[in-house]
Design brief:
The chain is 31% helix and 24% strand. It contains four helices and three strands, in the order H-E-H-E-E-H-H.
Length: 85
């Protein structure tokens, strides 16, 4: 949190889930293998949730993490700290 992350930048700029594999780890600075999920509030991207691990091993947790980050009505994520950089 509070750091610029190239995987998060890709997720925000491309407005999609970004998988980071071993090849990308070698090409991008300061990242680990994993998946980056955009966090939206009122149709605006406000941050990114990163899951660390081999994308093929953790992909199954995407929906769980997204649901956990949403409030009870499922409409908007719960934001407890600023995600801006």
């Amino acid at each position: 949190m509070g750091e610029l992350h190239q995987g998060a930048i890709l997720s925000i700029s491309q407005k999609r889930i970004v998988s980071i594999d071993g090849t990308m780890v070698k090409c991008l600075k300061g990242i680990k293998s994993g998946i980056n999920l955009s966090l939206t509030l009122n149709d605006r991207i406000v941050g990114v949730i990163g899951l660390t691990g081999e994308p093929s091993d953790i992909r199954q947790f995407n929906k769980l993490v997204c649901r956990t980050a949403k409030n009870d009505d499922g409409a908007n994520p719960i934001i407890t700290r600023s995600f801006s950089n």
